[in-house]
Design brief:
The structure holds two protein chains of two kinds. Helices cover 66% and strands 9% of the residues of chain A. Chain A is an alpha+beta fold. A five-stranded mixed sheet of chain A has the order 2-4-5-7-6. In chain A, strands 1-3 form a two-stranded antiparallel ribbon. Chain B is built from five helices and five strands, in the order E-H-E-H-E-H-E-H-E-H. The longest helix of chain B has 15 residues. In chain B, helix 1 crosses helix 5 and helix 2 packs parallel to helix 3. Chain B is an alpha/beta fold. Classes of the chains: A alpha+beta, B alpha/beta.
Chain lengths: 449, 143
Amino acid sequence: MPTDAEGDASSVLSSVDVISRVRTAALIGAAGLTTYLGFVAATRRVFLFPLAAVVPLFAGLILLNLILALTAEWWGGRRRSIFIQLAFQATVIMLILHRLGGVMMGALLVTGAFPIILAEMFGISVFGIANVLTASYAVLVYVESSQLREVGIGIDQQVAFAVMAFLVFNWLAIYTNRYSQQLGRLAENLRQKVAERTRELTTVNQQLAANARALQAKQEEFRDFVYAVTHDLKGPVNAILLTADLLTQRNLAGLDAESRGELDRIVRLAAATEDMIRDLLDLFRITSLSEDPEWVELSRVTEAAVETLRPKLLAKHTRVEVNGLPRVWGQPSKLARVVANLLDNAVKYVPAGRGRIEVAGGLENGHVVLTVRDNGIGIPEPYRHSIFDLFVRVPPEEQLVEGETVPGSGVGLNVVKRIVETHGGTVSVDCAARAGTCFTVRLPAGPVS
Amino acid sequence: MTRATNVLVVDDNPGFNHAARTVLGNDGFLVHTAETGHEALAFLERRPPFKDAPRPAFVVLDFHLPDMDAPAVLRRLHDDAGLQAIPVLVVSQADWAEDEAAARAAGARDFRVKPSRAHALRDTFLEFWRTHAHATDRPADRG
């Protein structure tokens, strides 16, 4: 009988699965019968099998199974039809046994295993089929009873044959059923484990996705917050500057030198703060800007940056040389900002009248290399690593250009680094051998996969 | 009869409004101030408490106001036949192209970053006024 577990399992199976299982079993039945026929044919001289008498029966059963396999859609869903079909095969097998030599060919009784195993595969009663086989065998014994007596096998021995058949078939049924149950349980356990793990993984994945979404939302919220604070800070600083400036203008004559100096300091500090806020706003803006990447001609970008800087370049009589810039794949306005910030940085630190800035480019191991070299005051060794961090600057007293401190907020190079890194590139200060500063930007030459 | 040239300055930062009033006041303008978009619209539309408000020769409008942004104010002005002719200078903390484009699309005559020096502030206002306001409103011409 099908156990509860099997019942559950078969109820889980869709009708398509049942049909395909029934069809497979019918094909296996046909193959088994063909093999059995092959055995009979091969051993007919040894055991004196009358082949002609059984071939039509075999052929009929094989054909029947093939037809059943082909028509599985129509009958496969019905347990009763499967049982009838198997019971029919079981009795025909007994008929074949009878034709081959009858009860005396007891060794061939083992063919009964064949419908019992199929019954298990079909999920119908193995004990039912086992006892159909037993009954058929008993009928066989009864039919051959007189012949058996002629060869000296008495009624009591004939009954013993039938009882032995009963025991063999039912033992086979018990064994098949238990084995199948164990397999079924094993399969069920595996299935449950897989389902459990799948559920766990799904839960974990959902949590991860939710966490990622929450994190992104927090980041956006944080960025908006910092942006709003920065923006709101700029207004008051701007007003402080204007107010201090008005005061200076109005009372220039009335103020003593010390007060004027202090007022100047307020203006200088407020102006520096305003610059810093402006650069910070710029940083937020440029880094949160989403742009589609395209081929960017570095020569054109550099030309535009030089044009923008022209007033400063002219004021310091600084020469700019541009050599062999290739094109690079990236976000145009961000890359333009990289070039502009590096040039802006360079022009601040070159000496007036004899400043030189050299922008050069090339290809190196699949990377575009862009160098911006100046003959300015250079960056002292201890600061070369941290110079790209936000708000980090070389202390003013260590970077006087012709005795003057250089204004700046410590944001520009950080912007450069952020943009270059989002493009999958690197930026470094690495021209220690010569005077001045040399920035090297390495960017992947083509689209990054 | 003397007729001062009226200007409306709209900014939520009183420091900026004060600076604007000072630099323009020195040049003979009469500066009115508002701190929100709604206050500015009430002034221009002469709603209470601005029933007798004069019509300004030009408006200086901060891009980011607490209640609305400059384009929203500009659109309201544009819908009013009596107000759409008033030239508006939009000022902002940052020179962002999309802000400028939005302001100009809504009818701003010019867009400038807020100068942080008094003389630059004055130059910006006067240049705008010379370019966009009617010559007959010049304070120098007043009787």
